[in-house]
Design a protein that fits this description.
It is a single chain. This protein has 661 residues and is an alpha+beta fold. Helix content is 32%, strand content 25%. Among the domains are: 7-26 and 41-58 and 78-253, no CATH class; 374-581, Beta-galactosidase, Chain A, domain 5 (Distorted Sandwich). It has 20 helices and 26 strands. The longest helix has 21 residues, at 128-148. The two termini are 45 Å apart.
Amino acid sequence: MYPGIDPITFFFSGREPMDWVKPKHRAGRAKASQNDDADNQTAMQWLEKLCVENVSLLQSSLPVEPRKGKAKATDHPSQEYLQAMLWGITDWEVAKPANREFLQDLVDAFGPEPFGYRRTKNAIAIPAEIRSQQVAHATKIGKWITQQLPKSSYDPYVALTCAGWLYALPEVGRDIPPTLWLEVLQSTLTQVDRAWTQDPQDGLFPWVIWACEVPLALAKQMSHLGGKDRIVTETLNRMAMLLEQTAEEPHALLSFGAQDLRAFVASMLRSRWAADSVGARKWYPPQRRALSKLQSIALHLTDGEGLANLSHAEASHHDAGFWHALMDMCKHHKKIQLASAIALPDDVGKPTGWKPNKLRRDRTNDARLPKPSHYFEKNNIISMRRNWRKKDGHVVIDFSQDALWLDISDESGKRLICGDWDIAVERNGVPINIDVAWSEVCWFSDDDVDYLELECDLEGQCTIYRQLMLMREESMIYMADAIFPAPSQPEGAWKLTSSWTLPPNTHFEPESKSNEGRIYRTDEQSDSKPVALFLPLCLPEWKRGCTAGSVSQSGDQLVLESLSNHPRQFSAALIALGKAGQSSQFTWRPLTIAQDLKITSRESARAVRVQIDSEQWVFYRSLTPCIRRTVMGLHLNMEFYAGRFSSKDGTYEALVEVSPD
């Protein structure tokens, strides 16, 4: 696809620095004797030849904004680039989190409203007072950049601030001290050379900023560089190959809760803007398809408020502009654009020409949309949805670490559960240390349910099985933990504690006489209101005389404790959302299980019937090797069964059946 470029050596092996051809100056400025050496120059050598002799020449070549006349469709003013620097940023674990303040200061100084001054179409020129503040700010941040590079160049906040400083140059580039301009440029090009000669060992982001975005940002600011200059063409080749490879193997962007995914895509968008501004070639269909695939992945990991999943909701923010730019760049792939307009807040779909509310009411759109759920196997991340039209029942789980992360959204698209889904086990009062990663045992998805079962094997002690099931039609989430002790372990008393993390604006209120409770949300504009019903299926319905455990809130944790003297322990809960979650008519009952015409003990199997309004369901779990048993007229020979029960005719509709095979 890219003649003369070996994709292996181009990206993922050591290589010589990319040649930087000396750009063409104005007519007559370049000398013929210099052209012979141009093909062997690195970025720093080019800088030395161009700048050391006359720094002011480079400074005077900066474009002056705003330009008079009608702007091109590909032109984006510097304030749009600065605002876009905040797209996809998160709370990265870095040595100096305060570095984020410099990025925010840069956006505040050069964004749409510098120092509170609102830019308008009529007032093109910024007042002298604001301009002087911008110059002072650019000087301050420029000095900070030279101090941070190269020791912290791969701090994402430092890399973003450096790229943003380059985008802000048309505003103040001619007014800051020339020596500072040169010093920042030298430090920046040093990092570009490093990125060109090194693999992205610390992750694709912020390596992509130095390898792709910064060279194009420089090309955009230097009037003598054009779309066919080698720095531009080779950077575009690098971006094209990088896009195709990451779309095919996106696991590098999905590590650590996919915290780099949005930031990476945002960098690609800004880089494309810069390339368009210098008249560079467009992306070919493979790159457009790759970007659309990354959009699809990002959408799967975004809640109904537009916030990134797998991170605390307060650590993310909704960037409508990010989605507008992404949808515009991927407009040829209608299916994912339709899904974005439906699943995201209205301020994304409406400005791009869609009618989100009308689309959500049209069920025929389901056949035109991508599959609502997806399993990212290499990263152990699963996104479950009822469908794209419904915001409630969106579940995202990350089981790549010892502690599982679980996100559940309610019918408004807001996070109901957000954070660690933890488990603690005690045997005869002695805690068992759980420091083993989870592995997938079963994954199943169809029109009725998404079902996931995980296993954690604590060798010599016990094996823990964890179930998570989204029931699409009902908008209910079933969750369960089962403990199977090792054969060598003596019998004893179990205490199993499952806990879910509640966001800051939610809390759990248990009922006074029964064991269920409701999750409430407190909004700034309204009083506390219930958003979900929580049923502890492993406990009896009534608290009176209950010794099997309890459900409560401790700090920001919703805690379910289950106690047992049986050899095996089992704990289960059901979260009902939407209409079912608001119902006041519900009940659940443990069911009698028969085997060989005899009632089995609770250590062999568990079953429960749940009723909400007129709808009923049955859940069954075997705790021993499978054998034929009878539950409420059902003849089962499987590990797990979930089904709808019709009280009218006594028939069952199986939702999921899990056999040992």
